[in-house]
Amino acid sequence: MNCWDFKKCGREKDKSCSAVSEDAGRSCWYVAGTMCGGQVQGSYAEKIGNCRQCEFYINVQSGEI
Asked: Taking the domains of the chain in order of start, what are their residue ranges?
């Protein structure tokens, strides 16, 4: 499952998120400039703290999805 499917954000349709354009739906936290909560996120170092609280990130890391 990709992040855009899990979050149901619809960004895969217009490719407005760098996770979509870089085909990184299973590891979006590594990609700079992703969209989350309607806002462009920064680099890995800038956003990983928020990502670690994300339900998708937690589920991927735990192997649930």
From this structure: 3-62
